[in-house]
Structure formats: structure tokens, C-alpha cells
Amino acid sequence: MQNKILITVLLLFAITMFQPTSAHAGFFLFNIVRDIFGGGQHHNSPPAKPNSSNSSNSSLIKFGMQNSQVAEVQQYLTKAKYLSGKSDGIFGYQTLQAVKMFQRDSGLSDDGVVGSRTMNALKNFKGTKPKRISPPSQKPSYHPPHDNGVPHYLYATPMLATAYTRYDEGSTDYTYRGTYLRRGLVAVDPDVIPLGTKLYIPGYGEAIADDIGGAIVGNRVDLAMDTVDEAFSWGRRDVTVYVLPKG
Fold first, then answer.
1. What span, in angstroms and rounded, lies between the C-alpha atoms of 182 and 180?
2. What is the Cα–Cα distance from 175 to 211, expressed in whole angstroms?
3. In this predicted structure, what is the pLDDT of residue 152?
4. Within 13 Å and on the Cβ side, how many CA atoms surround 38?
5. Is 37 in a helix, a strand, or coil?
6. What pLDDT is recorded for position 54?
7. Which partner from 1, 86, 185, 219 sits 20 to 30 angstroms from 173, CA to CA?
8. Can you tell me the distance from the alpha carbon of 116 to that of 140, in angstroms, rounded to the nearest whole number?
């Protein structure tokens, strides 16, 4: 304590002798005296920097991830009939497509990334069954082939077309009807297009309705591709599906 008093006296003597003219110098000496006697933090000390890390980024669920959060997203998508198969916790191509489709149907940005808004929409989803398109009740008539390559067909219906491969999570090497999965086979809703129906999809070609899927409900068709690159390239498209005659 005596040392502190001695230092203070010397500082006061220095102030008296040199008489600092600037307020900054006087304030500096005042802070020194206050620190000697255990004063608090300087008023001119820089404030602590806030945490600049973006906590929202750490909670995003994206393509390529593999954890329990992905499995939870898959469970919600399956419940909403946007995804079929087991929830394996792998954010692969099929999950990505299902997320984008759900986001689009929910009025969200379809970036395929599950953030707080998409997760809340999934948790609160109370969607209704998609509207089904019934085939014609009367015997359909033959339509002549189009100049753009469409063959003779019985009737046509607009559909949302996506693509998948046997390499996707939840997929197998065989269709619902037991055919080895390959290009030229498609998954449909059997209540809309009966299995075994011959189809023509512009940009894809002729196909057989041979598979089903939990997310393939209503006016949707899922096109089998031989490679993941082909499936990515197709993406999702609004198409006209032509139902062809048997034989």
C-alpha cells in the first residue's frame, strides 16, 4: 500500500511539473492511477468482438452428408410421400431430388439444402393426397403420329418427370415387377397408369411402366437411367406422357 501511495505522489508531482496540456495525456495518467488502486476496465478499451461464426450454416443439411439429421429429413420426406425406401442417413441423389420437389411444392427456394425453413415445413407438413388423373372411361381412339416423333398413341397426359438409377439410396437392382432396372423402364402410380403400360416420353423415348415408388403419386413419372450423370442431366421436367397401344 505504501508503494502505491509513493507512486501516486510521484505521478502527481510529474503532473504538477510538466502540466500535460492535452486531455488525452491527463486521461492516460488518470487511468494509470486508477489501475494502481485496482480500478476496473478502461473506458477506452475496445469492446469484445461478437462471435462472427454463422451458426445457421452449421445446421444446414446438404447433399453428400451422412448422419442422423439426414435420416430424420428422410423420415419426414417418406411420411410426406416424397421419398421411398429406408432412411439410411445418406444424403444422396434421390434425397436431393425429394428435398427439391418438397421445397418447390411448399413455395420455398428449391436449392436442395435443408435449413430451418425447410425443416419446419417438413415437420408441419399436412399435405393432401395429390390429385390423380384418371384414364379415359371410354375406349380411346388412335391418334396419328406427330411430326416430332411421337408414335400412334391412345391418349396423352401432362406429368412431372424425374429420373433415378439403381445406384440411388433406397433403390434396388430390380423393378417392382422383377425386371432388371435399366433405361426404358419407368416408375408410375398404378392408379393413374397401370403397370405394364407402354409409354412414350419426349426426350426419353419409349418406355414400359414397370416400377412404383412411395414418392411417385398422382401425375408423376420417374424415369430409370443407366448412370447417375444421366439422372442429374435429366433433373425434373414437365412433360406430356403418351400412352401407346399394346403390342
1. 6
2. 5
3. 87
4. 1
5. coil
6. 32
7. 219
8. 48
- Cα 121 to Cα 173: distance, rounded to the nearest angstrom: 33
Would you place residue 59 in the very low, low, confident or very high pLDDT band (cuts 50, 70, 90)?
A: confident
The residue-averaged pLDDT of 180-201 equals 94
What DSSP character marks residue 136? P
Give mean pLDDT, residues 65-69: 93
155-243: what fold?
Barwin-like endoglucanases (2.40.40)
What is the band of 38 on the pLDDT scale with cuts at 50, 70, 90? low
Q: What pLDDT is stored for residue 35 in this prediction?
A: 56
Answer yes or no: are the C-beta atoms of 114 and 73 closer than 8 Å.
Answer: yes
Cell 469484445 belongs to residue: 48
Could you tell me the fold of the domain covering 59-123?
Muramoyl-pentapeptide Carboxypeptidase; domain 1 (1.10.101)
Expressed in angstroms, the distance from the first to the final Cα of the chain is: 108
